[in-house]
Amino acid sequence: IFTGLLPAWRASHPNLATSMNEAARGSSEGVAGGRTRAGLVVIEIVLALVLLASAGLLVESFLRLQKVPAGFDHTKVITARLELPNASYPKAQDTADFYKKLLERVSVLPGVQSAAAAWWIPLSGSDIDLSFDVQERPLPEGQQAVAEVNVVTPEYFRTLRTPIALGRAFTERDDKNAPPVAIVSESFAKQYFPGENPIGKRITPNGSVDGKPPVREIVGVVADMHLISLKVAPRPQIYIPHQQFGIHSMSIFVRTQVAPESLTNTLRRTVAEIDKDVPIYRTRTLTDYMSQSVAQPRLNAMLVGLFALISLLLAAAGIFGVMSYSVTQRTQ
Predict the structure, then answer these.
(1) Is the Cα dihedral 62, 232, 150, 192 positive or negative?
(2) Domain limits at 191?
(3) Whole-prediction pTM value?
(4) Alpha helices in the chain (DSSP H)
(5) In a domain? residue 183
(6) 159 within domain boundaries
(7) Within 13 Å and on the Cβ side, how many CA atoms surround 73?
(8) Burial class (CB in 10 A: 0-12, 13-18, 19+), 207
(9) Is there a domain that residue 272 lies in?
(10) Model confidence over 12-39: pLDDT tens digits?
(11) Residue 174 domain-assigned?
């Protein structure tokens, strides 16, 4: 478009004297006009190549992003958000009992492999940070380290197929009557226990649903998981068993042997059978969250690639037009 403005302006403001002088010298076309057209074609080609190179870089970045390990298997997993009414579930143990009963029923539904629940959904763009102390080396208030915290049920890592690197996963025995425990991510272990075995170490995440935050023993280390986006490197993470941290709002995860979407109505009925006043919403597959995480980079690569293709076509058309015009002028 821009490279066509100057020729259009020159065509609308012809210089007859210059044209007659050039014709008198036997020139088949104006020297200045020929140079201008050639220069504009060169500019078109350069701009097209710049856009093409940019598109290539964006596509390469997008392909690298798709290869980033998410820390979980997103295939055939459906998720849904639940919010327990405070009036009906005033105590932390009430919420823990509800989710335990729900997951027991969901896990035996036809086509279901396993079921779990967690505070946050990977790649949803949401998380919560809590400060914490390492019991062996506490820091003054305000200088404490911060980590992402997720509250999960025992089958969470199995359902998402997140590997346990050290120690063990949570079990049903990790309830309110058991010693407080936690699982940390590999990046957490590397950052706060470099060169040490973190199993058996004690930390105190500053969060509690009923009183003073307890000191928790680390019983396992799991692979890093992306909570915010694949573009954001995983931060240190702490996992707490839901039986020891009974929050009301949780997301359920159901790994299926069938199309995950086919279980949407079944999940709603199962929740209603336990308590019809509990809302279930935001039903989506983990694959949707994965696609959402790479949607913007994919769009950027597609748009720049499209512009690069259009620029190349325009440059080719410009070269063809200039060559055709020059040949026509010389044959007259």
Answers:
(1) positive
(2) 77-285
(3) 0.73
(4) 5-12, 16-24, 31-66, 92-106, 156-160, 186-192, 264-274, 286-293, 295-331
(5) yes
(6) yes
(7) 13
(8) middle
(9) yes
(10) 445 545 544 544 454 444 555 556 666 7
(11) yes
